[in-house]
Design brief:
Elements: E1 2-8, H1 19-28, E2 33-38, H2 47-55, E3 61-64, H3 67-70, H4 74-86, E4 90-93, E5 97-99, H5 103-135, H6 149-160, H7 166-173, H8 177-189
Parallel strand pairs: 1-2, 1-3, 3-4
Antiparallel strand pairs: 4-5
Helix pairs in contact: 6-7
């Protein structure tokens, strides 16, 4: 069985790296099933990947589009690849090829995983530097701007009347559904 694994950090992932693009590519390369997942590189909790790992058996193939879809740091990548190779699972990284347990295979994987880890750390460093600069600006405020109380009150009235759905209220007020749910729960708690 050939399993594909498609991962994104956010649903707004750029063209070529979206879940849909990865899934299409994996299916075009012969996957029987593709397991999609959204998780950030900061967290190690990947429930769909863990379920997939439990399903993989000797002779199966795990296919990913790029090595950083499989792991975001060197130690995680090496551990995952060693486990899969030891279990007799073929790992096919489309932009790299089939990864084996040879000296050359391990060297290439280590180099690419090191680059993925470096890239992730550089993104975090640049983000942190940008936030530090922004904090020095007059009027800087951390987080999202609060929604005006009168807009929230109107939205709650529309919802409480029972004649409007969350989607309708979102369209009328411009307040996201997630925010509407939060505000409604806060009001009910009071």
């Amino acid at each position: 069985m050939i399993y594909g694994y498609a991962r994104v950090s956010t649903r707004k992932q750029v063209k070529g790296y979206s879940i849909e693009d990865q899934t299409r590519t994996l299916l075009e390369h012969g996957c029987n099933e593709v397991v999609p997942e959204q998780y950030t590189g900061k967290t190690t909790n990947r429930p769909e990947f863990e379920k997939l790992m439990d399903r993989l058996h000797r002779g199966d193939t795990l296919m990913v589009c790029k090595i950083d879809r499989l792991a975001r740091n060197l130690s995680e990548g090496i551990s995952t690849l060693r486990e899969l190779v030891a279990r007799g699972v073929v790992v096919n990284i489309l932009n790299l090829g089939v990864v084996d347990d040879s000296v050359n295979g391990r060297l290439v994987v280590n180099i690419l995983l090191s680059i993925a880890e470096w890239e992730r750390e550089m993104i975090l460093e640049r983000t942190s530097a940008g936030k530090a600069i922004a904090r020095q600006q007059p009027g800087y405020r951390e987080g999202r701007r609060p929604i005006a109380k009168d807009r929230v009150d109107l939205a709650m009235e529309l919802l409480d009347g029972g004649k409007h759905t969350y989607k309708q209220v979102r369209d009328m007020t411009g307040i996201s559904i997630a925010s509407l749910v939060r505000y409604r729960q806060k009001r009910k708690a009071l």
